[in-house]
């Protein structure tokens, strides 16, 4: 089967679908020239990419959103053709911060909804203006988190129409079980974005996710040079 924008999606457990191949937009914000994310996403959409993976912590959602909107404006794609994945960062796990954080992403992107919104990491940092809070000695400032409470806040965002699908990232089996076994679960995670490539295949996690209808989204699919 020829891989086209129309044919290379797979179904998610909530009835939506996700394109198999996506463009990750992470780049070191201190070293990446301004406009790089914009040009990359623009070219990707022109080439046929429909799955764009971004995050608030990447500091470039304004460029990503501009590229998406420009390609919609020039008729290359419609909004419904694009699958955008955003992420809830570690400092925003408290339930009262979840919707405002998603709304900040929507405002930055200038879009009405994201297609997939995921908890970026199962651990939480101390809430505040600093995304990577540390104490005087340079140690991370962690924060006690209730993943089930965070998930319930995400479910409310889905019910409000701000996001089409909900997922997680970097979750292990135990952390997934916390969500799946949560009393009153309304929307199960449809995906788990994890490092997955020929040098790190994660077969046990992959099988567990398959058994529970959770799609594995592999980042660094060709490996990574980062420590």
From TrEMBL:
Transmembrane segments: none annotated. One of its GO terms (molecular function) is oxidoreductase activity. PROSITE patterns: ALDOKETO_REDUCTASE_1, ALDOKETO_REDUCTASE_2. Residues 21-224 form the NADP-dependent oxidoreductase domain. The record marks 87 as: Lowers pKa of active site Tyr. Substrate binds at residue 143. Gene3D superfamilies: NADP-dependent oxidoreductase domain. The active site is at 58 (proton donor). Belongs to the aldo/keto reductase family. This is 3-oxo-5-beta-steroid 4-dehydrogenase-like. It comes from Pundamilia nyererei.
